[in-house]
Write a structure and sequence with these properties.
Helix content is 51%, strand content 0%. By secondary structure, it is mainly alpha-helical. The chain has a domain at 11-46. The longest helix is centred in the N-terminal third of the chain and has 16 residues, at 11-26. Residues 1-63 are annotated as: Disordered. This is Transcriptional regulator.
């Protein structure tokens, strides 16, 4: 996924980002800053546009 490519995000994530972006613009943020904040917030909450797990294995407690 190239930088700025939003194709791997779900429709829900795209809607959330759009709502956050509009909210930030209403607070006086520039369109570019509003978009940056919106996608950063979606990434923070959902881990980005990933469709799989984090890539980390669960901790093995069988020892």
């Amino acid at each position: 996924m190239t930088q700025g490519d939003k194709s791997s995000y779900t429709d829900k994530q795209k809607r959330q980002a759009a709502q956050i972006e509009e909210s930030e613009k209403a607070r006086g943020a520039s369109p570019r800053t509003a978009e940056r904040i919106a996608w950063a917030t979606v990434n923070k909450h959902d881990g980005g546009g990933k469709k799989s797990g984090s890539g980390r294995k669960p901790h093995d407690t069988s020892h």
